Amino acid sequence: MDQNEIVNQLPPSVNNPDPPLTPSDERTWAMLAHLSVLLNIVTGFLGIIAALVIYLVYKNRSRYVAYQSMQSFVFQLIWWFGGGILAGLFWLVTGISSVVLIGLLCIPLACAISLLPLAAMVYGVIGAIQCNNGHDFKYWLIGDWVRCELTRP
After folding, report:
1. Are 48 and 73 in contact (CB under 8 A)?
2. Quick check: is 106 in a domain?
3. What kind and span of H or E run contains 14?
4. How far apart are CA 153 and CA 139, in angstroms?
5. What confidence tens digit (pLDDT) does each residue in 87-127 have?
6. pTM for the full model?
7. Do 71 and 142 touch, CB atoms closer than 8 A?
8. Which of 3, 1, 28 is nearest to 15 (CA)?
9. Which residues contact 23 (CB under 8 A, 6 or more apart)?
């Protein structure tokens, strides 16, 4: 027997190094991609990396997981990381300008902007629950853009 005959006799999972995920596994990995936002509470940034790793590992095995994990990556990059930087800048401006009355008036705005990362975390958990229930979750403003980018030839 030559090597081709042996390979053809192997079960499909051995022939294909990247077999497709089962629907249950797809839901689980999509959920974990969205829940990766919770890593940011402890580490500040590892949630973004976790979502990207899930995308890179499963992009060839499941379009659903690829879409959900890339959405989570982009969402966290914008709302968690970007929101945190924006909140820090607003607090800096508020602190510097609090010598005058204008700085004191900025405190409520700085508090509201500081809630952006917290809101992103809650939205990520909602996405995780939706994916775990088998629904196609789409982040507002991000979902359509990610889908378009992932379906380009």
Report:
1. yes
2. yes
3. helix 12-15
4. 23
5. 888 888 888 877 776 767 778 888 888 888 888 888 889 99
6. 0.73
7. yes
8. 3
9. 134
**What's the residue count for the chain?**
153
- Burial of residue 125 (CB within 10 Å: 0-12, 13-18, 19+) is middle
Q: What is the Cα–Cα distance from 91 to 142, expressed in whole angstroms?
A: 27
Render 70-125 in DSSP notation, one character per residue. Answer: HHHHHHIIIIIIIHHHHHHHHHHHHHHHTTSHHHHHHHHHHHHHHTHHHHHHHHHH
Task: Give tens-digit pLDDT for 40-68.
Answer: 888 878 889 999 999 999 999 999 999 99
**Which residue range forms the structural domain that includes residue 35?**
21-143
- Asked if residue 3 belongs to a domain, the reply is no
The pLDDT assigned to 66 comes to 92
Tokens 């797809």: give the residue: 26
The Cα 37–Cα 75 span in angstroms is 9
CA atoms of 131 and 30, how far apart (whole Å): 6
Number of domains in the chain: 1
Amino acid at 44: G
pLDDT confidence bin for 16, thresholds 50/70/90: low
